[in-house]
Amino acid sequence: MSREEVFEKLNGVFRDVFDDEEITVTDATTADDIEEWDSLEHINLLAAVEQEFGMKFNMGQVVSMKNVGEMADIIIVQIG
Amino acid sequence: MRELEYPFDGELILKKSKKLKRALLEERSDFLEKRIAVLGGSTTHDIIRILELFLLEQGIRPVFYESEYAQYWQDVMFDNPELRSFAPDLIFIHTSNRNITAWPSVSDSAQRVEELLSEQYGRFQAMWDKIAEVYRCPVIQNNFEYPFFRLLGNQEGVCPQGRIAFVNRFNEKFYQYAREHGNFYIHDIHYLSAAYGLDRWADPLYWHMYKYACCMQAIPVFSHNLANIIKSVFGRNKKALVLDLDNTLWGGVVGDDGPENLEIGQETPMGQVYSEFQSYVKAQKEIGVMLAVNSKNEHENAIAGLNHPEGVIKPEDFVLIKANWEPKSENTGAIARELNILPDSLVFVDDNPAEREIVSAQTAGTAVPEIGTPEQYIRVLDHSGFFEVTSLSEDDRKRSEMYQANMARKVQQERFADYREYLLSLEMQGTIRSFEAVYMARIAQLTNKSNQFNLTTRRFTQAQIESFAADETYITRYGKLADRFGDNGVVSVVIGRKGTMADTDIYRRGETPGAAAGSGMTADSAAAGSGAAADSTAAAGSGAAADSTATADVLHLELWLMSCRVLKRDMEAAMMDSVVEACLDCGIKTIMGYYYPTAKNAMVKAFYQTMGFEKTEETDTGVTVWRYEIPADYEKKNTVIRVKRTSKAQQQRLLR
User: Fold this and answer.
1) Which residue of chain B comes nearest to A63, CA vs CA?
2) Would the pTM of this model clear 0.80, i.e. be above it?
3) Is A65 at the interface with chain B, CB within 8 A?
4) What is the ipTM of this complex?
């Protein structure tokens, strides 16, 4: 899956989770950029991303992930 | 909503919860509002988020109180004022084995293990007792799931020091408390985690990262199961199971294959599957579920199939058998009408997706599960929780008998030209008394599930019912009705509050005077739904309303309901007689009645008129106010039911 395709799918997940069709994420997007993205919604977001790509984040990854770009990096490595 | 019916896609629900919530709120407006306190021993945020969806799906609109992280015990024991003023209708305590703070170690003596158990159990018991005393509302308490590792391997359950042995004994203590206390329900996460898969359920990532007691993906299963208890407590269980026959209760088509060639019994694997399903269905009768047949068949073929010698379920197990060539949606509607229940109390089971579709589209509110293949039928029905058991009353166990007796009455009725003569032929005996301890559960149950013959549609918990019974300000009456065909049990409830004419103003707004009992008394009616309800505490606090009963000369009827199974039996007249008598006993000559319209209670719109009341007012929300002056020469309205008034205890007092 190309990086563009990963981001396209990520947009769909973000839109579902935050119920906002306007969201478009980039490498630099962080929780500060999306109003409803707090620590509690973060759990839900990660679960939805895992389901979308059929993969799992381990604890180390969850703790260190800084922005959507890093999230995409992990996804690309995991799904090969 | 399909997305929220078992079997559901939990990950979809988690992901799209916001959208689903919006759709649920648009789907209907007649929600029953309930205040639910969630007291957590771990994170509860997403549990609440998903629980809300499953409750909305059941027509219950929750308002939540969420304790601070892991403050479940402190909130109760140290009287958190916020929780007090929230005045919950129900408290859910979300604890898990992560809240067991002192586990036995392998070197502990058996006596030490015992001490650990009773110390920690004592904390729970003290909390439950305090809730019962202060909040007097139903409590739902998680039991404990197994730990995800086993230090002692397969001996964990054998050695008293093992965690599995410890959890088992802890849970048994919880169950014992539940057996001995009403209004206390176990949420069985022990079973749930096993059914889900303990390794996935207990994924430690979710505990260490977010302090969740179970994994995120298990939350829909968790909240669905919890919502089932809540809707059952608030009277939203289904009542009847409507079943197709061919390829649902047996393999094959009886009309084509002949009854002797059906797959049922121990001869073939498929026959065994259907036998097991028939046993499961038949057992539903014992928890008060009524069974009916809705099948495209000649009637005689249906009966022949049900009389198959290897079959478990027989024609007499059903209260109604509709085997004909009508559309199944029409049969479903007819079944609801004949049983005097609403279509949303039915569950329709059919192997054929096309039949499910037509019933689902045409019969509003009837549950139509995606039942799957024959070997899945039991699991789908069972996990759906349509008939979640929270109290097993004698009435529940006898329900099928009672409806069958009703059918016999209908036959009887056809033999009489004169209706009064028919009523007399029933040899009815009523018992009408103030609320008594043995019936409190049934009375509370009735206030929560009666929708049609219900003037004010006020919902009460058992604790509230008990408080009315103990309060001199209230006149309470329950009515039982028996006749030559059977005993209907408690079928009618009236609650009146003594006050003055000035109180009328409060009632016409859909509110109630008296702040103490006021907490849970939100009527889910159009009137209470209006903006005026918001200032109820202000209204209750002020006014001369709450004064002593010394000046009370008016009885305000806060509740009048009757089960539809005894419609047109003059039971309402007998209740009226009893209420009038109670009024005269305490010098009250005026009775005020109120009708709050809902989507379901149009049948009693003019009820007070038929009882001889005079309409004094009609508000723009459709609330009507009725006045009755008891005449000096009041004549009993009921002339067909023989009524017993005094209880044994009262008789004994009189004799002394």
Assistant:
1) B209
2) no
3) no
4) 0.83
